[in-house]
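Archive entry. Fields below.
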Amino acid sequence: MTLIEGHKAFTPAKGIPVWDVDPYDEAILADPEPYYAKLRELGPVVYIPRYSVLAVGQYESTRQVFTDHETFVSSRGVGLEDFALGTPWRPPSIILEVDQPDHTKTRRVMARALSPLVVKNLAAMFRETAETIVDDLLTQRSFEAVTGLAERFPVSVFPRAVGMHDVHHRHLVDYGSCVFNAMGPDNALRRQALERNAIIGPWILAACARDRLTEDGLGAMIYANADEGTITEAEAAMLVRSFLSAGVDTTVTGIGNALWCFATNPAEWDRLRADPKLVRPAIEETLRYTSPVHTFGRTAGCDTEIAGFKVEEGSKVIGVLGAANGDPTKWGDPETFNIERRPLGHMAFGAGIHGCVGQNIARGEMEALLSVMAEKVARIELVGDAAWRPNNAIHALDKMQIKLIAA
Amino acid sequence: MAKVTFVTHEGARKTVEAAEGDSVMATAIANGLDEVIGECGGSMMCATCHCYVDDAWADRTGAQNDGEGDMLECAASEVKPTSRLSCQIALSPDLDGLVVHLPEAQI
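PREDICTED_STRUCTURE:
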């Protein structure tokens, strides 16, 4: 068997369009819209020979792959490596990279720790922190908003919610970034991520230990399941690690992207300020419009079909969530940022049983910050151009200088 | 394919036609019923598509899925034995005529 990027190389079924593109080219990652558009235009499923993968980017086909977890499995890795054929770069996640029935147990433990009620109880802390940070930023003429706000807010509230004694701003943000870069091919981004992870990984593991956590945080809730015997002590540590891989850099990206959306669409900011109840739909539209997680993989667990085309067992399929979230067939005018759209069914959190388990807390953090800003900030202005940071799975800003005009 | 009747907390009835394979939640949203929010899009993460299955239909819609009860504990309105997350009820011709009641509030 020939392997490409750690998975089986295959010849696509007749009729599937072939496109010689590198979706992980840094220029495409920084400005993905033309790639998304051509992928959708070529068809519901496209073969990319360079990596021998199928790519789905139309809304319907992407949704089909993500909601059919029995056919398109996660246990063989959600990046380009096929865990059935080689050793993964890190011990696989026991919630992300696993199928039913094992998934059901860990998902339930995490879903309870991240439930709407839990997040409701964190809302006051999120809000107070947001007020302090926004008041501080309003005293500055202008500031770099990726580190100064998009990172600063989650790094202030999330480790506290988890109950971590150890907080290291850079490690916490960069760990998620490394994990997501590792989902791509063996390119410079991935190699740098693995090098960096050799330093950060051990720090993260140590910070997830039971004795490095308070007794009243989300981390302790996970370890309580080990005490009850639902999961083992080692599994509890793995799930706390999942908080950090999936819960920091992603939210940082969501917040940064929201600031960019409102800075470049000031009329939508005015609408939000006029009707603060729009904050929840505004968050959904930000997620749809910018797709913080742009690509996620699956593996065909058996011979199957996508949109009527035959797909052989072992084929890697990449779901281009950013393309699905911009599909005009589904959204009508996807290129318009409209906070009243209410884009139900957007794919920014994935879909189906593997849909983001932390989505409530992500929304809770974004809601607290945007609500406080809507009260205190009349305008968000860009100073110069924003720069995007290429990542194999995340569409995030690298640098964005902004100015806040007080209300 | 299947007709579904939604009865709001105030007693208003609305009967709509569902698309094959859609959930009760997706059907409600597609037909503009504001009493269903469905914020998480059907990943069983948010409890904002809570409904009460009419007693006459409770057997046919089946039991709650794994983890559904955990999420219902977070629902804004009273949870009853017939409570379901409407995103977890997939419509099929067998459920033609289904009646579901909507709670007073979802958030």
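CURATOR_NOTE: Chain A touches chain B through 24 residues (CB under 8 Å).
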